[in-house]
Amino acid sequence: MLTIELAQHPEVKRVVLAASPHYRKHKAFFSVVETVSLTGTYWSGGSRSTYTAVRLADGFALGAPQYNPPQFGGLTHAPECVIPAGVAIVETGVFCGKPATAFVRIGPADAAKLLPQSASQICGNAACR
Question: Is the dihedral of CA 28, 126, 120, 10 positive or negative?
Answer without folding.
Answer: negative
